[in-house]
Amino acid sequence: MIKKLIFSLSVFALFSCSTNMDKKVNKFLEDYQNPNQPGYSLLIAKDGEILLAKSSGMASIEVKSKITNETNFRLASVTKQFTAFSILMLINEGKLSFETTLTEIFPKFPFYGKNITVQNLLEHTSGIVDYESLIPENQKDKLHDKDVLNMMMQIDSTYFSPGEKHQYSNSGYAVLTMIIEKITGKSYHVFLKERIFDPLKMETSVAFVKGENLVKNRAFGYKLENNEAVFADQNLTSAVLGDGGIYSNVYDMLKWESSLYTEKLLPKKLIDESQLRKTTTSGETFDYGYGWRLEKLDDYEVVYHTGSSTGFRNIIYRIPSERLVIIFLSNRDEGDTLVLARELAELYLSN
Known about the structure:
By secondary structure, this protein is of the alpha+beta class. It contains ten helices and 15 strands. Helix content is 32%, strand content 20%.
């Protein structure tokens, strides 16, 4: 009888704690809770075990489909960690090195490419020109990664000497995508499927290429104007894959995050190196690794990346020492996901 009572009290305590946490989380999500507006999918896990998984809102207002935990969102720049990881796989196989230059890979690349290394591209110290600034005003067709590479081959300079500064570059990650394709002879979306998504059983994650694959259970992007949702799913850069073209859901992203504590796809040494701060040629340290942003939250080291594109705002926020991860995906063109992730992390760390 006493054992039953203790068990019942334990279950009640756990239920009460869970309910209380859910209420606290909901307070942070008040702006996203309109079920008839674009919304979100949120997953919080510790030690690979899900603590909370919840969703709200519409994946498509036009067809009235609701967001679930299986809904796939455009990851935007959260994609960069997959591009960087793919490059690290090729380095691990001896097909590239951190010191390999653009002119070694692409012999017809302009002379300035002989000073830009794979490492410069990974850590955003290449100085390479932003392709968005080179798009013609009359451009109508969507750009692809190969178009970005061609743009870089039509100019003859960089913003600064490679290695001199850290300056975030979408161009660099589109070029990395073309390096993957040149070295492997495979399309980027095929490489990801064969080397990352399939081995990790990320069954609905894709680098979307029209006519080549499909995004299942897809969330479409919106922006809010006067509290009204306006369809805003694609723009001229949406078909550039390496800097932001992957679609995934919170369950698949947890599989990906959990794999980073193993050597299933890559040796621990390279995974760890991707999550360390880098330095410029002058010795200045900056808060970026290879496809990962870095920060301190209180005394905790945080490894994360945001993703922002037309119609989407996302984040994966990790505290490796605690094996705590927050994955937040949304299909609305507003909201500070970094502030939200910090608040949620502090809530769970305090408990």
